[in-house]
Design a protein that fits this description.
single chain; 108 residues; mainly alpha; 2 domains; three-stranded antiparallel sheet; 4 helices; 3 strands; 54% helix
Length: 108
């Protein structure tokens, strides 16, 4: 599998997850109290997630930062990197490739 293939597979996988998450809870997301995540609803009313993060507010803050807007931007980055790196020798420390490999479940 080429690096461009790895990037495309990661983009497809991430796109599926982002679209599903956005359908359930459109962004932007933000951390709430006691490890919850809040997101807007129709009319600007913010709702609290139906779950709490027992590990604490640090995890909720991270989830809040990684809302669907960030996911869609990462998908575009992976797609663009795949196009740019098709047929090119790529170093293993290429940042987009590191993201793709993490999303694909491991390292090379």
């Amino acid at each position: 599998m080429t690096p461009a293939d790895e990037l495309r597979i990661a983009a497809i996988k991430l796109r599926e997850h982002v679209d599903a998450a956005e359908k359930k809870r459109p962004g932007p997301w933000a951390p709430g109290a006691a490890g919850t995540v809040i997101s807007p609803r129709e009319g600007g009313v913010r709702i609290v997630s139906g779950y709490t993060i027992p590990e604490g507010p640090e995890i909720a803050r991270y989830i809040g930062l990684m809302d669907p807007m960030v996911g869609h931007a990462l998908v575009r980055l992976l797609d663009q990197a795949a196009d740019a790196l098709t047929g090119v020798d790529v170093d293993d420390d290429e940042p987009a490739l590191a993201i793709a490999r993490a999303l694909n479940g491991g390292t090379r």
